[in-house]
Structures are given as C-alpha cells and as structure tokens.
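Lecture 7 notes: from sequence to structure.
We start with the chain below.
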Amino acid sequence: MKTTATPTERAAQRSAIIADIYFPLQLSYRDPATFQGRLERRSTGRVSLSRLCTEPTCYERVPGLIRQGEAGEYLVTIPSLVPVLFRQPGRDITCTPGGFIIGHGDEPYRFACQARNDLLVMKIARSALAERLCATFFDGRKGLGGLFAKTVRRVHAIPSDPAAAEVLGRHLIELLALDRHAEVDSGAATVIRAAHLKRAQDVVLRQLTDLSLAPETVAAACGIWKHDLHDLFGDTETTVVQFIREARLKAPRDAGGLSLALIAYRFGFSDQAQFSRLFRAMSGQTPSSCRTAFREGRRGSD
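Predicted structure tokens for the same chain:
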C-alpha cells in the first residue's frame, strides 16, 4: 500500500491508512508537501506485521484519540536505518538500529524519526503478554531478542501462507514473552531450543482435552519433526508422553466441581481407577485429597 496522492489529499489519506493499520495517530511532517512513504501490511495469526518506509515524521498518540474502554494493543517497532525517539509518560528512549522497542496505545506517546527510516512493526493485543510494558527497549542483536528480531524479518519476507499464519503469529508472541521473562543461556543454540521447547509445552497445555494429543500432533502443531520434539524434551529429563500425562494428572486442581470420573474421561484415562492410581504414583496422595488441600489453600489466601 503506497501513500502517494496529490499534495492536498496526502495528509488525510496518510492519517486514515495509519489509523486502519495501527490506531489513530496525529502526524507531523518535516516537509508535508514533498513527503513520500510506503506502508505494507500482512496478517499473521494473532499479530499484524507491517513495514513502514517513512521520511522524517512525528507520530503522536494524543489523549483526544484514545477512546475509553478500547482494547489495549502494543506496537513492537524494529528500526533498520536510523534511531527512533520514543516518549511515553515517565520514559524517554532512543532505539537504535539493532534494537527494538515496545509501546502501548492506551496511553499518550510520541514517536519520531529524524531522517528517512525503514521500520518493521508488529501489532499485538495487550492481553497476549502477561506483563504490562511501557516504553521498553530490547537488544535485538543477541540472545532471544536477536532471535525475535530475526524471526520478524523472516516472517515478513516469506510469501503469505494462511495455513501457517496462526503458528507463526503464536511463535512470535512466545519469543517476545521469552525475551522478557525467561532466564536462559544467550548462546544461539540454547535460545532456539528453549523457544521451541516452550512452544511445544504450550501446545500440550492448550490441548489437554484433545484425546488425539500425541507426540505426532504436538510436533505438527509446532512445525518440527517428531524426533526433534523428543530431543527437546530430553533436556527436561522427561518424555513428551510423560509431560502430557503429568499435565493431565494435575487437572483436578483447576477442574472446578467436575467429578473425578468425568475428569478421567475428559482427559483420556480409561477410568477413574486408572486416573487415581497414576495420580497417587506421581504425587503421593489421592486426587480427592489434593483437590481438598488446594481449595483450602485458596480460601486461606483470600
């Protein structure tokens, strides 16, 4: 999508395009009459990726453009040519090429490019990340930050594939969350393995009630070979099948008022007796006593 039009039309057209792809922003140009830019967008599952080629411009999220109650969203920006200046209440950051920055759209901010720039921007819902971030800078040259930035560039460059979009979008979110929270070795091999392992574990936890859940389906959902999946779980001194079984055995704690017989059926055990026997072998107590202790602990913390 190109922002090319007659000089009298450009300002309104650019504002409408920016609002559609990101959210409403107030734009200020160094030279409005000669400004040229280009904006490309693609949807990747739960995230939106765009490339913004811009001449010197200031993008402001002013209070009048923020609607009460609208869903919060983050913009993750990766500059390629020159630094960008970002200001959000209490934070002033200069993000140089090689890094990336996260800002959220439900508070005012000011984002400026002092020279022609080429930006990759990822928009995600604030609910996708557990921690609330405000004007946060990340190093995109090494470790998980480097893996995330490199993956964004690759995903944006490859042809669009609707079948893979959801997996790719989820992978980007998980890499970003890992970079913020995980304490892993910064070596490239360890970083990649940690990211793949967490993604596989998340697939299992989301699909515990799927009776067809198996190493083959987990590997397919992650886009890796089954033998690579087994190798990843070897780092945890457990197998994929054991991880699935233990995750299912922990179900009574969060299963509300469901009976143990229904829990056993829902999570793929042959009967309640098998479920209880395996649960006791893992935890040293019966499912009923574990559930009671968990509920009492919750009441005690309230």
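Points to note: The radius of gyration is 24 Å. Residues 182-188 have pLDDT under 50 and may be disordered.
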